[in-house]
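#structure-requests
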Amino acid sequence: LSCSNNPYGEFPEGKVMLTSMGDDPKTLDPVRVGDTSSNSIASNIHDTPYEYHYLKRPLRLIPSMATGMPELSKISMGKNTYSTFRFSIKKNLRYMDDACFEGGRGREIKIDDIIFSIKRAADTSINPFGYPLLSGKLLGFDEYSEMIGQKIAALKDKSGELSEANLFKEDIRGVKKIDDYTLELILTEDYPQII
């Protein structure tokens, strides 16, 4: 008989892995996760369009939610040429069942959910991890961030309430919804790290 540090009772063999953490997670909000402890949990809860192949060296990105690798191209708008990054997500991906959804059943994930996360990354009041990754690189992102800051400041002056639906209702110039499953980002410069 061996000792066990499992305080939760018996689990099926090979189905549960217990591990220690050096620190408590700071947040599980996917837009704000930037530390190792939070990421070790959040990366098992929230999916991303792309992920690293765990067994390939050197490291190689592969699709996770995405249907394939992104299409990169250039477009001209007025006198400027911009890089574009287009990808589609798989159909029938679903959120886990939860009371926050109508009838408690998780709904299908659509490209609007990814767009919402990009918009939340522009809200500097929540200290988003992705802000510096997109600032100056995604067309219209900085202007969008400034507009959100102005809305929040005006709200504080009036002591009113601002719903997320109203806060994030405007579009970011460089974020183009092609259809319910396809997104195109317009970048101000070549930016391979956007993936």
